[in-house]
Amino acid sequence: MKLKALVGVLAVAGLAMPGIASATNGYFSHGYGIKAKGMGGAATATASDAMGGANNPASMVFVGDRLDVGIDWFSPKRAASRTGAASAGGSLDMNEASSSNDFLIPEFGYNMMLGEKMSLGITVYGNGGMNTDYQNGSAIPGTGCGGSANVLCGSGSTGVNLEQMIVAPTFAYKVNASNSIGVSPLFVYQRFSAKGLQAFGPLSSDSTKLTNNGHDSSTGWGVRLGWQGKVTDAVTLGATYSPKIDMSKFKRYAGLFAEQGDFDIPMNWNLGVAFKATPAITVALDYQHIDYSGVKAIADSGITAGYAGTTSPLALGGSNGLGFGWSNVNAVKLGVEYKYNDALTLRAGINHGDNPIKSGETTFNILAPGVVTDHYTLGATYGVTKDSEITVSYMHAQEKSVSGPTSPYFGASVSTGTETIKMYQNSLGVAYGMKF
């Protein structure tokens, strides 16, 4: 009976394509699962829901038979400005905000026990963060772009949209009463679109595959490995590792992303500890590393010296093509959970991550201003019955800005100017959990 239920769950999950727009720890979410989001994302050493495929596969053998379904309203506010820049045609100054500000992000988890020592489940979750939409014409008061144009001197509105859906079937095994291991094969489906980037045609290895080609998709397979161990009655440790996922190429955007449209998922790992300070209070601490430097489309500089034309390896789409110049991100996540009574559990958390964008990389990152570093969260779970519960969470990411010089490759004969990109975020999520 459980196996038939899992087959049905897999069929539904395979049809679910979340629309994603989250830029928190780079473009990874600050947390996965509404409970983890209320804890600042700290979940590597805890076991409270069926989101283990995203957090720690080893945790699933401790959560029992359960179903978790949730949705998060996410509102990132992005803006960009440029001052003191001009070309032969006039001023390039602008001050514009992205008009795409509201997104719904679903999540799904299911787990079933196979006896006392094994579990089988599935987690469906998403990443994103490169979603912007700057309108045409309103941002350029001068004629430096040759008349009415968008913030990057192209025609029409400009922006990008990246969505990633990860389906994670999960197997966990309890080695003994205190330790478990788990594995989640990861199937990744991603899609991408870009528009309004015509001004970068002279920098592209193939300007016909640079912009305004609609949505393109790619797929790939990866894995997440996990361990969770109870050291004492009060202390639990956890660790996970996911190597870089080799994705198929975005063929329609082979003239934009380095390596002819390649956009892989970076290697990432987590370490966590959960400490039960009292029977009612648990403190969780996670450290996460995301290796953006291992993906050329993300890590290659947008101002690389030595560019020498569209056939250069440094051209957009080239083997070492111009990119977003992102650095690795290390994030520390601290959460506190307080079991107020048998029905109500309260949570709070802080998440601090590195800003991946350096001051010299602002021009391309107008499209993807993932600069926020500090996230503050609250959450709560209320038991509706002994076998069902409602969980809510709230997150605010404090506004962060980065300023730097206009890229020397932006436009033609551009005088030195200063660009500023900035963002802040709010999110509000709700989930339903049911035990079997």
Automatic annotation (TrEMBL):
Its membrane topology:
Multi-pass membrane protein
Where in the cell does this protein reside? Cell outer membrane
Keyword annotations of the record? Cell outer membrane, Membrane, Signal, Transmembrane, Transmembrane beta strand
Keyword Transmembrane recorded: yes
Record-level GO cellular component terms: cell outer membrane
* Organism domain of life: Bacteria
Signal peptide, first to last residue:
1-23
Q: Name one GO molecular function term.
A: long-chain fatty acid transporting porin activity
Family matches, as InterPro entries: OMPP1/FadL/TodX
Q: Name one Pfam family in it.
A: Toluene_X
Q: In which family does this protein belong, per the annotation? A: Belongs to the OmpP1/FadL family.
* The protein's name in its UniProt record: Long-chain fatty acid transport protein
To which species is this protein native? Sulfuricella denitrificans (strain DSM 22764 / NBRC 105220 / skB26)
Which lineage is the organism of this entry classified under, starting from the top rank?
Answer: Bacteria, Pseudomonadati, Pseudomonadota, Betaproteobacteria, Nitrosomonadales
